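Troubleshooting log. The previous structure file for this entry was overwritten by mistake, so regenerating from the original sequence record. Sequence copied from the archived sheet and checked twice against the printout by T.R.
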Amino acid sequence: MVSVKEEKKRIDYLLERDNVTDKQLDAVYQEALAGLQEVIGDFYINYSVDGTLNSVDLSRKVTRKDLELLRRQYAKLPDDMEIPESKRADVYVAQGNINLSGLLAGMIGLVMLAAALRSKKIVQRNRKTAVREEISYQSKNMGNLSKNKKRRFKRENKALSEPNYKPNGDVSYIPWQDRLLANSDQAVNRINIKVNKVINQGMTGQDVNGKLFPSSPTQSVNTNLRNEVTAIDYKLKRIARTEAARLEDEVTESRFKTEKVKWFDWVTEPGACKKCINLFYDGPYEVGAPDSPRIPDDSHPNCRCRRIPSDYVDDEDISSKALLAGMVSANSKSPKNEDSSDDEEFKFQTNEIKSAIIGLETSDGIMISNISKHLVERTIQRDRDVSTMIDALVNPLEISPTRYTDGKPSKRYCGAVTTVVINPDTGNVITTHPTRRNIRKRHGVYQDEDK
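Regenerated output below.
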């Protein structure tokens, strides 16, 4: 089983790989910025009157000579455009045939479309790399499975990198290609608005560099095109990183199911946000459960956290969080295991919990008969208040249906603060953890908490 330390090293490697992809996208949009500067500069030279470019002068129809500028930009597009991309190119060409103002807008659109198409290839290449490397990584960490099962695992997951693959079969998922093109469309609109704003005021040669392409992002903020290109570059980096993480998590989930992993822990990336730190604390999670978090849908875009099989198994065969979990550095050493039964605090907590909840009847009529050693350990580890456990059992927000793991039943009682898991057949309390935020939110007890 992979350790937290090993998974932390994996995260470090993935972040390095992301940085390589980021640099590739940076290069694309630096070239797009230079392309915009060239197009707008040439347009000013060709169509300014007495050193000024006015919107009135741009209302005339275009000539064949004018359209040569448009053809030059169109020729830079790849020959293998798909239908949505080809339609956008046609729109920009049609726009360029209206008048001089449309000609400039069409050329700007073609420059940005060319950048979007190059970015698309980079993102797709990154997705393929992510799937290939994750399959290899997970295969090495799989247990004593037959060669046939490992081959099947590799074969089934290769399809994840197909461009039109929808993660988890989610019909509401918006394909990354559509989001990429939509972001490009929005950038084109904002760029045209800024250019027209300067032209409407009478654009001079100094305005081209001073207002549209100033050297600093803080200069001429309302008309600075560098900021727009930087923004679209960032969005493309986010798509690349998020989609890679999504596919890697799909491979991880497939590995869990292939090995029949029951519970998993959340391992945080360096400098993790509060949301992911809370996801770490709320674990372990049941594999395949509807309320178990996935990356990135239950974390956030750009998330580089990971999921690993939980390495703690109590006497009810319910996995728990390793004491290191995701908060420990990859270079940290694991603390030595101590026999908690010899600890005075452990004995005190055991007696306190037993006296408080044994004999208690849950809201649906199950008598609590015993508690597990793991429950006490979790109570100490997370400084849980036994009163919140009682509230969950007697006054739950919701109760999960009985689930069976290797024939052993478990039932969750989700309280306003704490969730308690019991064996409904024996009345034994198995474990406890904080109630997930989505559950509290659903019942109106989520108030002013960090996301």
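Residues 260-327 form one domain. Archived copy saved in two places this time.
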